[in-house]
Amino acid sequence: MHLRIEAQGVVPPDLALCAACAEETDTPGERRYRYPFTNCSHCGPRYSIIARLPYDRSQTTMQAFPLCRACVREFEDPADRHFRAQPIACPVCGPRLSLLRPDGGILAEGEEALGQAVAVLKEGQVLALKGLGGYQLLVDATSAEAVLRLRERQRREDKPFAVMFPDLASLRAACEVGSPEQALLASPEAPILLLWRKPGTQVTEAIAPGNPRLGAFLPYTPLHHLLLAVVDRPLVCTSGNLSDEPMAFEDGDALIRLGGIADVFLAHDRPILRPVDDSVLRLDGDGPTLLRRARGFTPLAVPLAGFTDAPTVLALGAHRKATVSLLQGGQVIMSQYLGDLTSLEGADLLSRTAEDLLDFFGATPVRLACDLHPDYASTRLAERLAADWQLPLLRVQHHHAHGAACAAEHGLEGPVTALAWDGTGLGDDGTLWGGEALRIEGPAYTRVGHLRPFPLPGGEAAGREPRRSACGLLWSLRGAGLPPPVLAPAFDGPDWKLLQTMLAKGLHSPLTSSIGRLFDAVAALVSLHARRGFEGQAAMALEFAAGSRVEPPYAWELDEGVADPSAMVDGVLADLAAGHDAAFIAARFHASLADLALAWAQLSGLPDVVLSGGCFQNARLTELVQARLGAAGFRVHRHRLFPPNDGCISLGQAVVVARQG
Ligand SMILES: [Zn+2]
Ligand SMILES: [Zn+2]
To answer: Measured in angstroms, how far is the CA atom of residue 77 from the centroid of ligand 2?
Structure first.
């Protein structure tokens, strides 16, 4: 029974329900008919339940379930698909379901728990489900009322929800699915895939207001499979958390943190050791972009060319979409997506994950890496660990890390031009960067180009209030004054005055060169989510408004790499005055950014250009920049295996620090 499949150093990620296990679960008379924990050597829980290596049942949370005779026979039979399946289980010996009230009282168990959970969902109530790598919140995706109830309780205004469909046929009825998409949906990774929505489907608009895409996926555990088959309609299936906290995965904690959100809990007695969220992926014409890297991908090691002899480095990452990376033996192991570190729970999870990653892989780092920003929870953790372990801590500029991450992913060892465009990250001059063209060589970089900085009243908080970016940008271009008529509706009189006073006195108005904030400013000018929204919402609205429309770009003035947006903003205001719509202006704005990318690439003059930063989650922008640079003869590289957003920062930090002296 002590079988070790990780002999080649492969630690398996959690894998989606395979076809054979789905069939066994669905077939009357089979041993595992309607059993929600069916798995085999091709599917089931792995990383989320393995305490330590070697991978053996006794080292997983399944050690609490002694195998019955029938399971032992299957486990030991090389001809059986359960051969050496460490988490093997059946209704006789394996985990069981229970339905709980938020106070922990048991309402039902086993099949009865499943049946009552179905009824709860059909009534439009909120179900907390203990899934594979954590708790999820489920409601009927066809009921606007149910979805709005979840939004209110979760304090989540209009951030899109992912939707799980009972089967491929129902998913196809709601979204555009080609054969590459179909293959991904049915893959062992079974990610949430961002698809184009079809009009007039049963999925309520409240799922993702104003968003032409839908995050869709298929049941990936037998529990989801059984539940969705009986509910027989699409369900919102979102990480079990409140607002910006990380996903709950421990039973007691889940009841406390989700008790005010869920009406009932469908839980089970198989402990989850570490939270593994659902991965999110988008497929473009030329390949996938992984927007959230977790289930199905973590903890796969990715070899990095040129780092075989590099020192072992632990990198603590950024502040949002946090990850931790371990560079060891020429490979990088990136932790699962951990969410934002704004809450105490988030900071605690980061700390646990960093130590877990080292323990799990038996790694002893000789250097630590973190961001330049002194207030990130990741920076503070890095400082504490450096002191505890007596290790050198090296701080890596945020956009340098972005560019280095993309270069490392593509094995680029020579100098590259990095276009690192995102919300904000601390620059080495103390301002907030985010519209950067860097020339990266070895462990060093030079700033080749950037957006001319403008003040951001309220600082990083402006990310949720695009009108602040518009106000700061206009102030920097034209000085104090009344809001242009187009912005007036976004401001109550005193608001505008207050911001103008802050700007005049330089109060809490740091300078930024952020293209993410430029997106926000332009979105506010064309009246898209000007007042408030989730980070990136206004930029997404601008992307969707542009669609695939092609319009002439606005002009830029470039002075030694510093891009002055004055002419561009004048162009936007003139178009508004002439009665042009948001789609026209958004298309021109996107085209201008492709022009800027080309101007910076030419100024830097290197053949390889890497694209990184949250702005490159924008499919239209990425496509335009790639096409423009490609036509001019540049080799353009974008993230594939790691996210373009701050999820890649820990990787970039690790490679920069590994290359230092
Ligand atoms: Zn299976
Ligand atoms: Zn059994």
So the answer is: 14
